[in-house]
Write a structure and sequence with these properties.
The protein is an all-alpha fold. The protein is built from 6 helices and no strands. The protein has one domain.
Length: 123
């Protein structure tokens, strides 16, 4: 999977979760044909950034992940206070929609013009 493809898939999946805050990631159309073992941590960003070259001391904290860069928190930290954890642990409603939107939009700065056009995002 290319980095750009992962960003597009991430955006598409989280866009569905913005529209359907009661859903889990596995209920989106992007998981229908995917074996859970194919995508690391069920996350397209982990899939491309978890094994990316980085300093050994920072391996656990995914320093190149767009979500980490924007939120200043790694999803693998011990405390359940990351954007993903707030989304995951919150009941369906506006707070869950808000965090799904933040997670979805973290990849926008990394999308190419072609990807943005495919997703219907204005540059």
């Amino acid at each position: 999977m290319t980095r750009q493809n992962a960003y597009v898939r991430h955006y598409q999946m989280w866009d569905e979760l913005v529209e359907h805050p009661e859903w889990s990631k596995h209920e989106t159309s992007h998981w229908v044909d995917i074996d859970d073992n194919d995508i690391m941590h069920d996350c397209y960003l982990c899939e491309i950034h978890f094994f990316a070259p980085h300093d050994v001391d920072e391996a656990r904290y995914c320093p190149k992940c767009p979500l980490k860069k924007v939120s200043k928190r790694s999803c693998v930290e011990d405390k359940p206070t990351t954007w993903f954890d707030v989304w995951r642990l919150t009941k369906p409603g506006e707070t869950r929609r808000k965090y799904a939107t933040l997670i979805r939009d973290c990849v926008i700065p990394y999308l190419t013009a072609k990807s943005m056009q495919k997703l219907g995002i204005e540059p």
